[in-house]
Amino acid sequence: MAEQHTRGQQQQQQQMQVHPTEAIKSLLPQKGPSKTQVLAVVTLFPVGGALLCLAGLTLVGTLIGLAVATPVFLLFSPVLVPAALTIGLAVTGFLTSGAFGITALSSLSWMINYMRRMRGPVEEQEHAKRRVQETAGHMGQRTGQKMQETAART
């Protein structure tokens, strides 16, 4: 019984073991890349390389500029720091003021539109007023007729 159990486990392990080349083949697509995919890779490789070179040149230029400007910043820091703070606060104030102004205008616009929707156009109000007056007049006439009919019966 134990022999049969160990044989079954060995057979399962042999079935589960896959050759490395077959495992890789199962990950690859069955057919090769299409012409458009090849063209995209051929086109984008040089573009990506050129952009990577530009990024490297920009980094080198930034580091050189920082190395040259650092002593100047240290010499003029008593003047530059308060100036930078003043400019930063002024820009923040202007941006905040603009944001509050836009918020106020949009709130005012919303309120005006809301009030217009509640009131409705003047024509509709006049038409509704006339209908109410006509209905009231008609009801008054009917009431008067009913009163006369009731008085005549009694």
UniProtKB/TrEMBL annotation:
Q: Which UniProt keywords apply?
A: Lipid droplet, Membrane, Transmembrane, Transmembrane helix
List all membrane-crossing ranges: 38-67, 79-112
Polar residues compositional bias, start-end: 142-154
The region called Disordered is annotated at: 123-154
The positions making up the signal sequence are none
Q: How does it sit in the membrane?
A: Multi-pass membrane protein
One Pfam family of this protein, by short name? Oleosin
Family, similarity comment: Belongs to the oleosin family.
* Protein name (record): Oleosin
Q: From what organism does this protein derive?
A: Datura stramonium
